[in-house]
Amino acid sequence: MSKMQSILEKLAINPVQAVEDYKKKTGKGAVGCIAPYTPEEIIHAAGMLPIGLWGGQVELNKVRAVLPAFACSIMQSIKELELSGSYDILTAVLCPSSCDTLKAIGQKWTRKDVPMIQFVHPHNRKLPAARTFLAKEYQHVRERLENVIGEPIPDEAIVQSIQVYNEHRAVMREFARAAGAHPDLIDPKTRHLVFKSAFFMRKEEHTALVRELTALLDEAPVKPWDGPKIILSGIMAEPDSILDVMKELHIAVVADDLAQESRQNRVDVPEDGTVMERLAEQWQNMYGCSLAYEHEKTRVPMLVDMVKKNQADAVVVAMMKFCDPEEFDYPMIKQTMEKENIPLLQVEIDQQMQSVEQFRTRMQSFVEMLRHE
Ligand code: SF4
Questions:
Q1: Residue 153's pLDDT band (boundaries 50, 70, 90)?
Q2: Quick one: DSSP state of residue 184?
Q3: How many Cβ atoms from other residues are within 10 Å of residue 364's Cβ?
Q4: What's phi and psi for 52, nearest 5 deg?
Q5: CA torsion sign, 124 to 103 to 18 to 351?
Q6: Relative to the CA of 320, which ligand 1 atom is closest?
Q7: Which residues pair with 94 in a beta bridge?
Q8: pLDDT on residue 189
Q9: Of 99, 103, 120, which is best to mutate to test ligand 1, by the most ligand atoms within 8 angstroms of its C-beta?
Q10: How confident is the prediction for the chain on average, in pLDDT?
Q11: Would the pLDDT of 290 be above 90?
Q12: Where are the domains of the chain?
């Protein structure tokens, strides 16, 4: 087995197994972080394992009684997993109130032994008062967690965790660059696996593996790619079967703007201020995301720049079914891509998708169209 394959195998993690192994090894528990932005550093500083909750391909039954059919697909599956007890292995769950659906999830939480800690991201983010407000929200998260685990989470431990997370973000940005240059070695599903595995490992461990992987990619010769090169944008590109279709069609994902992937690593936690203020300021500095309100919508020119910088052929928006924040951004993206003459495709993402045939047909036609551009 090659060195690269052996690293990728270590990154192919079963989340339930990861939680159980972590508990056995450390005696500490795991805290679920409902997508997409939570102050994971506080959990990490408590010595616990932060676990990203991004739903999954589950049959929807129980959720039908509590969420309307027009709630987004990811929250439908998160709620189904909660109601069926899959999250009972967790110590607590953190949930931001970034959109209406997330607010509803927090209000409808049913697991009494797994406390839900909800907090609010201020939408008018740039005001100094927003930083003060969010720092207080994060302090509240910290105090609730301290109550749950029965131990204080010291400032010094959070400072150290911030360093670990900033280092991880830098390494992931480097991986994204190296993977974009080597689509022959990192196909769309493998690229996704590397990003997703970060939600089930302590970040220092993930950093070490991805750093090694990136070094191997950087050593490999850059080969010409004759298939279409795309930028993926949206909340997430799952289920994995759609990434398999991209591989079959010889499509390279040369960069992404997915909430589950590169948006996680876009902005570091700054150096100045108290620990809570620093974490809050990171949210103030976030850009290019449908959930982080900004009047000027930097996401749109950012996507144009990404196309130019990565010499991509097109942008594919992976539109999460019934996601209002993403749907609001789409008309602006479409208008600008038309003006810039950049091919654009919107595909619907439904985690419960049973068949990828419709997706395959749309991607095939898009690839044909790109060949004749
Ligand atoms: S941001 Fe979109 S995908 Fe995420 S919870 Fe809200 S509606 Fe669902």
A1: very high
A2: T
A3: 13
A4: -75, 130
A5: negative
A6: 3
A7: 33, 117
A8: 98
A9: 99
A10: 96
A11: yes
A12: 14-155
pLDDT confidence tier of residue 217, bands split at 50, 70 and 90: very high
Q: Which residues contact 200 (CB under 8 A, 6 or more apart)?
A: 13, 15, 18, 49, 51, 52
CA of 191 to the centre of ligand 1 (A): 22
pLDDT tens track for 63-103: 999 999 899 999 999 999 999 999 999 999 999 998 989 98
Whether residue 319 has its Cβ less than 6 Å from ligand 1: no
pTM above 0.90, yes or no: yes
Q: State pLDDT tens for residues 225-234.
A: 999 999 999 9
Residues 91, 19 contacting (CB under 8 angstroms): no
CATH number for 14-155 (one of 3.40.50.720, 3.40.50.11890, 3.30.1300.10, 3.90.1300.10): it is 3.40.50.11890
CA torsion angle for 287, 289, 293, 299 (degrees, to 10)? 70
Closest to 326 in 3D by CA, of 369, 247, 263, 284? 263
| Residues 26/202, Cβ–Cβ less than 8 Å | no
DSSP string, 90-133: SSEEEEE--SHHHHHHHHT---TTS-EEEE---SSTTSHHHHHH
For helices 128-149 and 275-285, the axis angle rounded to 10 degrees is 130
Q: Are 277 and 191 in contact (CB under 8 A)?
A: no
Dihedral of alpha carbons 288, 291, 296, 299, sign: positive
**CA atoms of 346 and 315, how far apart (whole Å):** 9
Task: Look at ligand 1, atom 2, and give the residue with the nearest C-alpha.
Answer: 323
**Ligand 1 in reach of 102 Cβ (< 6 A):** yes
